[in-house]
Amino acid sequence: MTNILFVCTGNTCRSPMAQAIMQHRSEWNVQSAGIFAGEGADASQGTKEVLHAKGIPFLHQSQPVTDSLLEWADLVLTMTQNHRDLLKQQYQAATNKIYALKEYIDPDYEQAWTELKEAYAQLEDQKLVGKEMQADVIRKINKLEKKVQNVDISDPFGGNIMTYQKTYEELDNYLAQLVKKMENENR
Fold this sequence. Notes:
- This protein has two domains: 3-106 and 152-185, Response regulator (Rossmann fold), CATH 3.40.50.2300; 107-148.
- The protein contains eight helices and four strands.
- It has helices at residues 14-25, 45-53, 67-72, 81-90, 101-105, 107-125, 131-149, 161-185; strands at 3-8, 29-34, 75-78, 98-100.
- Strands 2-1-3-4 form a four-stranded parallel sheet, sandwiched between helices.
């Protein structure tokens, strides 16, 4: 059975919402934690309201990311690229299992990174003849950068219920894709 750890900043909004949705959708072992989380805080009111409205039961107490949680996890999915990068810096032994959620789901993400590195190398080699060819490579770089930078799940903290609803819908969409991906990998 797969152990999944969702990580956000304070472990009161996005990661507990992701945990609740995933527990509702699957049989996998799921936990959540926060990079700057305190111990034992409840989920935010907006998170609780949205989950309740969707009929997803959930009790939550925040917890910080720890070595033992990362050892427990087979897969660590963060809500932003900054969360991913901080974890990879602090827990270098776990880097091979830490991803931003959207990055992990999107099969084109890895390809976009490869193409972006190649385009930068091409630009740096300055083997491009003519301004038109350089402009084409720069347009390609701009397009690819947008693709690889768009991996953050929106943070509803401090927002109204509509903001939490929007984050729920975003997470629900990506977690449905995650379930499909993991079911296909486990066949």
